[in-house]
Specification:
The complex is a heterodimer of chains A (344) and B (345). With 344 residues, chain A is α/β, with parallel strands linked by helices. Chain A contains ten helices and ten strands. In chain A, the strands form two sheets. Chain A has an eight-stranded parallel sheet with strand order 4-1-5-10-9-6-7-8, with helices on both faces. Chain A has a two-stranded antiparallel ribbon with strand order 2-3. In chain A, strand 6 (189-193), helix 7 (200-206) and strand 7 (212-219) form a beta-alpha-beta unit. The longest helix of chain A has 20 residues, at 124-143. Chain A is globular and about 55 Å long. The relative contact order of chain A is 0.15. With 345 residues, chain B is an alpha/beta fold. Chain B contains ten helices and ten strands. In chain B, helix 8 packs parallel to helix 9 (300-311) and helix 9 packs parallel to helix 10. Chain B is globular, with a radius of gyration of 19 Å. The N and C termini of chain B lie close together (11 Å). The chains are: A alpha/beta (344), B alpha/beta (345). At the A-B interface, helix 4 of A face helix 3 and helix 4 of B.
Amino acid sequence: MKTIYSDAHRLHAPPLEFNYGDFGPAFETPRRAEIVLARVRETGLGEILPPDDLGLAAARRIHDAGLLEFIETTYGEWQRRYGESYVIPTAWVAPGMRRKLPNQLRARLGYYCIDTSTSLTAGSWPAARAAVDVAVTAQRLVAQGERAAFALCRPPGHHAGSDFYGGYCFFNNAAIAAQAFIDGGAKRVAVLDVDFHHGNGTQEIFYRRGDVLFCSIHGHPEDEYPYFSGYEDETGAAAGEGFNANFPLRPGAAWQNYQPALAAALKRIDSYGADAIVVSLGVDTFEHDPISHFKLRSEDYPRMGEMIAGARRPTLFVMEGGYAVEEIGLNTVNVLTGFESGAR
Amino acid sequence: MKTVFTEDHRHQDGRLELMDGKFVPAFEMPRRAQIVIDRVRSKKLGPVVTPESFDLEPVYRVHDKGLVKFLQTAWDEWVQAHGCYDALPITWHTRAFRKKPPLPESIDGKLSYYALDAGTPITAGTWRAVRGAVDVALTGVKLVNGGDKVVFSLCRPPGHHAGSDFYGGYCFLNNAAIAAQAFRDLGAKRVAILDVDYHHGNGTQELFYNREDILTISIHADPLQEFPFFLGFADETGKGKGDGYHLNLPLRWGAKWDKYEEALSAAMKKLKKFAPDVVVVSLGLDTFKEDPISKFKLEHEDYLRMGEMIAGARKPTLFVFEGGYAVDALGINTVNVLTGFEQKR
């Protein structure tokens, strides 16, 4: 399996994040991608290729022009206005308020951003753009006939919606790739999100569409970020009714709990008849993840890969979360090698 | 004019607040109320009385029981989850797939469910201070209801950003709204709330938006420029039976007394026409030219004029203290409004 990777992710590296009432060391760090890349090399998974420079067309198919411009321009404006500080919102569109774009930069942050832990840095824009290139370059390999490819994206994407960002995500790499499959002629695409956190951005983007099935297995929103979406009864709307499937699991879920949820999700994907599968691959389901509460072990990840291979569809893996940095390479590549042995 | 005051406010003492991407010392601090009570005493405004203790029924008339319970238990849950430091939310509901998502079980989820910003820390003493502020407001109601023509409820923490089931903007429970509803429950047919705080009273607006028995008027910085950013526009005039019973008068940054006086005249005209039995004033002084987080340009003496104009309604009036962060000037400006009112009455 080929891996697409760009060093540009390193440009986005906030040293701290604001989480749980205080600034602490950032969980979403460049080292994450470097460790995954090292493991890809070490295991001889396959060629590692740079992305093509594809411009913004694919991102525009998913994201509002205002959001793209905001991510591009805000850091510079913020520095001029407020000096050295973390570019995060402190006030937001609370329930009952109106979603009107304000003039003030600090207010626009509350309009576009959904949490306090995702700071815009000088390098967010080039890094997020490169992640989109990585996703779409890998998508093209699969569209051109590769059985599978691995888009080693960073920053991750699945919390970013049509006009909002957050949860360490700026642009929704997986959703952009899914749309690229559709634009390339696929009739039906499935996005399977195995990150520990609900892929609220991906859900929002495709909620009213029947041509993209979204399945997500994640920590129950009553317990876990993003808290306000990811319930089982969110099944899609309008033309998308029946094409959104959430499989929330309680904290402490181990493989024995996870496996039936994954089997159910794959059954949905099978009966849907997807032309391609995009996997939002987060490995924060790992037992030692510092911010998550599932109990998967390293040896469970090859089984996850094998099960996904069992769907027998062209498959694009897109890197999402996973914060147990030392084991992120092992667990991620375990999924990919498990897939390869299952696909044989 | 009697002032109702309790030292319990000191239990809300947030260390830091998050502003523009960094921690800064909390603007909403105990010294604010101290400086006002000192000025009330030195200017001999009138007797300072301690509040009575009320049960939570008048609070439940305005706020969701879930919010009230949350405010009582949040600190303990937070300490258990994270340790002994001020609690702030990390996310919020945006574009949820349901009108009202279920209340999360974890403390971080609950904070994110109820909070409307990350600048309002919940501390060990928050609940005690919040209860005290509600008692201060309700004692003011009792005095006015018993015949006092005007009373000053020196509430802290402030209240006007808190709504039926949300807190934020340094506010936890809406003292002025609880007072207005209490007046209604004691027999007043019509109550007017005039909010002169620099920031839009979004909580008060939300609470009475459908009501024609409680007129709400707010003069504040344009939400396109200023917190709470997403409410407080001129076209928000009330809904259903309450249509026509809400008035927003947003002013642009830099407004001086000439602009402010025009808006206040319009507010008083609307208020007089409504002919309320009683007036509740949400008294914020962050319209002052030296306020560190605000951008209006009122001067000390403008507050005397403000008090005189409010007295022109000739109605029983309860002043409820809200914001104002130019702490050293806060006593002068607050008491200027109150003495302006008394001189004109």
